[in-house]
Structure formats: structure tokens, C-alpha cells
Design brief:
single chain; mainly beta
């Protein structure tokens, strides 16, 4: 089994998630042509780890790149973007690609991202080796963001979370669930969670969006998500968690009223888009009760946090909205 990155909680900390003391782990200039590297996804692969990384170049064109690591902390990211081949369609148009997630389902690694097709929608592709990539039909009509697959079929169907949006810096957004029999045609759309009211939980009152691939636990699906408040200084993105029903993941069992993490460190508060923590991936071991959370910071760099899964679940249940 691949040994996930880990750092023990500082002795004076009461946080449920705590930051890696050498953050950020990926600098904005980690490859020669990059302006920023953030909001990226990683998975165990062979004897180490592989990932799909959002790399905006110095023309600030958004694209996704493959990368590899032995330890999940130091990464070698390909200098050139992923080139897609035709998967279940010949229509693989894309004006841009950003904010990928990766889920291993059955026999391959499925990738979702925000795909530019007359506005943002959810692109889908797959790979077996992180060398050749195949693009499939877009899942939804524009406009949509934050497409996140469940890591196994639910009632015989693929399942995906997403956030319908508009064509701009969306000032609203709720999390929805959709199903597909074949990764080509999507339907049975269900509302999962709506943004909270300002009085109930202000940090997530403007919009919410699914983060990493959900984790199956004996308490249900553990889902991390970002929540947004619009302040006089602009949007602020923080991290919360929820537990969803096993076979009906549009049913929310618990959802955090307080956030788990909010922008506080300089690399989270200062960057191309300040005051952003955007979770996109986890590496976890249920047996060891450990989790490593990868997140984009200030839309500029990639950072890492850690937590015990049992503590996160307990916090979610005890502090539910």
C-alpha cells in the first residue's frame, strides 16, 4: 500500500485539520511556463502517486498537466499540457480546462474538470497510465463547475456531484447530484445541499461546491466542500465537511456549521485571488485513520493539510447545521 503523506498534529493545536509546516508544497513557478499551479487532484498510482494539475501559463491560459511523485509531497509535473484523444465521442472541443478531480472506478482513472465549451461545463476523460488520456462527452450543458465523481457506482450507476452556475464569477451556487449508466448520458438530477443562510452559517452563505472525491466510511460518504461568503473585500473560500447517505447520497445526514479551515496563512490570503482555500483531493487510510487534504491556496499555489478521519467525522456530527 502506498504510504500517504503525514505529519502529526502540533501539540498545542486543537484543529481538526492542521496545515503542513512546509506549505506550499507546489510553488506557482514549479514548471517553466506556469503563472500558478493550484486546485489539483492526486491519487495513489503504482509505487507512488500521480496527479492532474491545474497549471495556468504566463498568458494565464488555463490547462491541466499530468504529474508524478514518490511521496505525495515533492512533485514532478509535466511541462506540457495533457493532449486528449477521442474517448466515447469525436467532439473533444475545449477552450480551457481547470480544477480537475480524479477518481479510480473499476479499471481506470476518471478525470473531471471544468471544461470550456461555450462557457464552463463539466468535462470527463479517463486514463489507465497517466500518459494517454481520452476525452468523453461533456456531462452537462453550460454553465456548471465542480464536477466530482463518486469512487464507485451507486445502485448500478455512475454518480457525480456538480454545481450549476453562470458564465461569470458566480455569486450563487448549490450542490447537485446526477447519475449516468455509461459516462456519456447524465440525468436524474437531485439537489444535495444549498448554500446556508447568513444567520445560520455565514461562511457558506453565498455558494458551496463539492471538493475531493467522497470517501466511503461506516458513517456514510464523507464529503469535503468549499463554502463561500461575499465580504466587503470580495469572496472568501473556506472548507467544510458533510456526511451523505450510502445509497442515496442526495440525502445529507450531517453538515458542518463551523468551517474546518479558513484562509489564515499568508499563502492563502495573498495571491492571484486572495482569501481562498479550495480543496480538490485527498489521500487517506481508513485503517490508519489518516487523511491528507490537498488544496489550492489563493488561486496560486498548492498546499497540504492533515487530519484523523474519525475526528473529522465526530466534528461533523457534533457541529451539524
Amino acid at each position: 500500500m502506498n504510504k500517504i503523506p503525514w505529519q502529526d498534529k502540533p501539540k498545542d493545536s486543537e484543529d481538526v485539520l492542521w496545515r503542513y509546516d512546509a506549505n506550499p508544497i507546489i510553488d506557482r513557478y514549479a514548471i517553466p511556463n506556469s503563472n500558478s499551479i493550484f486546485n489539483s487532484a492526486v491519487v495513489p498510482f503504482e509505487n507512488g502517486f500521480a496527479g492532474v494539475f491545474r497549471c495556468d501559463n504566463k498568458a494565464v491560459q488555463m490547462n491541466i498537466h499530468a504529474g508524478f511523485s514518490e511521496n505525495g509531497v515533492q512533485w514532478n509535473i509535466n511541462h506540457e499540457p495533457i493532449v486528449m484523444q477521442a474517448g466515447n465521442t469525436q467532439m473533444i472541443d475545449s477552450d480551457y480546462k481547470y480544477d480537475p478531480r480524479v477518481a479510480f472506478i473499476e479499471d481506470r482513472y476518471w478525470i473531471t474538470w471544468c471544461n470550456g465549451y461555450h462557457g464552463p461545463t463539466i468535462g470527463i476523460g479517463y486514463t489507465f497510465d497517466f500518459k494517454e488520456f481520452f476525452q468523453c462527452e461533456n456531462a452537462f450543458l453550460p454553465f456548471n463547475r465542480n464536477g466530482v465523481l463518486f469512487p464507485k457506482k451507486i445502485n448500478g450507476k455512475y454518480a457525480m456531484l456538480s454545481r450549476p452556475s453562470d458564465n461569470g464569477h458566480t455569486p450563487f451556487g448549490d450542490i447537485y447530484l446526477s447519475y449516468s449508466p455509461d459516462m456519456k448520458y447524465w440525468g436524474e438530477h437531485r439537489c444535495v445541499m444549498k448554500a446556508a443562510s447568513f444567520n445560520d452559517s455565514a461562511w457558506q452563505c453565498a455558494k458551496i461546491g463539492a471538493g475531493p472525491v467522497p470517501i466511503w466510511t461506516n458513517e456514510g460518504w464523507l464529503m469535503f466542500y468549499h463554502g463561500v461568503i461575499e465580504t466587503c473585500n470580495g469572496f472568501r473560500y473556506s472548507v467544510g465537511s458533510a456526511l451523505l447517505e450510502e445509497n442515496q447520497p442526495d440525502k445529507v445526514k450531517y453538515r458542518t456549521q463551523p468551517y474546518l479551515m479558513a484562509p489564515s496563512e499568508i499563502y492563502e490570503r495573498v495571491g492571484d485571488v486572495p482569501n481562498v482555500i479550495f480543496p480538490c483531493a485527498t489521500l487517506h487510510s481508513l485503517e490508519e485513520d489518516k487523511l491528507a487534504l490537498y488544496y489550492g491556496a489563493a488561486d496560486t499555489v498548492t498546499a497540504l493539510a492533515f487530519g484523523h478521519i474519525s475526528e473529522i467525522i465526530a466534528f461533523t456530527k457534533q457541529n451539524s447545521l
